[in-house]
Amino acid sequence: MLQAIREKMSGWVLVIIVLLLAIPFALFGINNYFQAQVDTYVAKVNDVEIAPRELQERLDLQRRQYRQMLGQDADLRFLESPDSKRRVLDSLIEEELRFQDARAAGVEVPKAKLQSEILAIDAFKPGGSFDQNAYVATLRNNNMTPAMFEQRLVRDLASREITARLSESAFVTDAEVDSYLRLQNQTRSFAAVILNAGEETAPAPTEEAIAADFEARKSDFMTAELVTVEYVELKPSDIKVDAPTEEDLQARYEEQKDRYVVPEQRQISHILFEVPADADAEAQKAALAKAEAVLAEIRGGKDFAEAATASSDDLGSRQQGGDLGWLEPGASDPAFEEAAFKLEAGAVSDPVLGSNGYHLILVREIKPESRRQYAEVKAELETEYVSSEQARLYSDLAGQLVDEIHRDPQSLEGPAQRVALEIKRTEPFSRAGGPGIASNPGVLEEVFSELVLERGQTSDLIDLGKDHVVALRVVERKAPEPKTLDQVRGEIDAQLRLKAQREQLKIKVAELEARLLAGEALATIATELGKTPEQADAVVRTAGNQNPTLLDKVFKLPRPGATPVRKAIELSEDQRALVELSAVVDGDPKTVEAEAREAARSQLVAQWTESENRAYVDWLRKNAVIKIAEDRI
């Protein structure tokens, strides 16, 4: 039969069958050629992609860290700048380069090393030792699972291994330390005359010049973008709560009776015979003998207060006859307290050894334990009831508001109506802020975010303070508009005058510097200018009483020879200095103490390590294929 089939499938029949079978196979997967392959990475390091999610996570982490350092109200808009985002992306690229190089070098992270690193992190040790629940909760709060965190930690440890080896190889010779100390402790003596652009006389700009500048820079003269925001505000103190009934308050009192217990109190005086912490046995015996002698006098009829004034080593209570006032359990040294709360009223203790010496204790009066009655605390209970109800309702309303916003993100009116909150409205304000909630950095960050400003969505709840939140939406947006010439005339006039003054200063200083270089003394030029040179004698490079820019540039001047070094220095666009450097004296390494010398060595090692690490990363970058998607950052 098989042979018959083979014979029938020869010739044109076989060709047709093969073609019919070939078509679906030929078209299999053809869709892949018609589907566009869209790249989503923000950067690609060799063959490894860095996803937008990774960049956003790192940006969020950076924002949280700044909030912890600077406070919740800190203005963090600078983190949204392209330069800031690029720096974060560069750090991710460098981490990936280090990890790839470590992996290529065969660096492995032992499981024991990973475990010890995790166990050493304080955030996972709320009670002093590692807590698995705290570990999981902390990671969850940072949108990570233990597996994700451990993977990141492995990458970090592997990447740091080569850096650590570079650090271990760093060393600095004694000669290098000596050279560093000579420079670090070098002193310079110089005189300087400061010249300011504002001192120059410049002609008023013509109307034609003002108009021409305005036309050339029209795009610079724009009004600020303005937005108007509608918002709902939620805080416990605004929530109306029905007054509690008598039954509510009575029940609350019964539930919390233990709160109103007033512990036993004792009015106590004492006489201290101090024993230093490092005292030997003989000193302790001497203090005990003194205490016993004073106790014998008291029991023989001497007044306790009189004895305390004469003999107590407690300077704080001695002048009050040893009076310590009313004490409760838990407020004093355990040994002192145990003895004091065993005595009857009017009794004096035997010498009691406490943490700071021997005490004679007198209990002058005892107030037994008592409980504040309902009538005494009723007003307190009512206030607490209202506050707790407001807090409960606040939490419920905040949750409902979040849910409603998520259901209807394009409108604030619907969520506000369903949660029964009043919609309020701001005055127009710019990115610089405005009155009311528009002065809050967190509000400004949300208002001018892509989600709220560009997509028109309602924000998430924004914290304005403890238990005080708002949700907002932009309802009006006014684009920047060109300003008229009349609006900016004064600004342009001032700018053109300053520009002319700067140009005059530049020409004047060039002429004066030529005279200095020709050998004319600074004092002569200063007299001509009606100025007195500022003299700096033997100052170090960190002198706090000098202009830091001037000082930095003076320490870069060459050493003077037979004549002083004279030069003009630019301090800023508006300020120049004519300088006469007369002396340079190197520091003497022999006068530097051993501790300071080692600190200098450590500083040099740190600088060397940083330089080598930077060179290492630069080498990795040079030998890698790195693609950055600027439009996705």
In terms of per-residue confidence, which ranges show pLDDT below 50 for 5 or more consecutive residues? 1-36
What structural class results from the helix and strand content? Answer: alpha+beta
Topology, number of strands: 17
Rounded Rg: 40 Å
**Biggest sheet statistics:** 4 strands, antiparallel
Strand content: 15-25%
Description of the structure:
Strand 1 and strand 2 (48-50) form a beta hairpin. This protein has helices spanning 2-8, 12-27, 31-34, 52-70, 82-104, 111-119, 132-141, 146-168, 174-184, 207-216, 246-255, 281-299, 304-311, 315-318, 334-340, 374-407, 413-419, 441-447, 450-454, 485-517, 522-529, 548-554, 594-622; strands spanning 43-45, 48-50, 187-196, 226-234, 261-262, 265-274, 323-327, 352-354, 357-367, 370-371, 424-425, 462-465, 468-478, 534-540, 565-572, 575-585, 626-628. With 633 residues, the protein is α+β, with helices and mostly antiparallel strands. Helix content is 49%, strand content 16%. The chain has a four-stranded antiparallel sheet. A four-stranded antiparallel sheet has the order 11-4-13-12. The chain is extended and about 100 Å long.
Briefly characterize the structure.
With 633 residues, this protein is an alpha+beta fold. It has helices at 2-8, 12-27, 31-34, 52-70, 82-104, 111-119, 132-141, 146-168, 174-184, 207-216, 246-255, 281-299, 304-311, 315-318, 334-340, 374-407, 413-419, 441-447, 450-454, 485-517, 522-529, 548-554, 594-622; strands at 43-45, 48-50, 187-196, 226-234, 261-262, 265-274, 323-327, 352-354, 357-367, 370-371, 424-425, 462-465, 468-478, 534-540, 565-572, 575-585, 626-628.
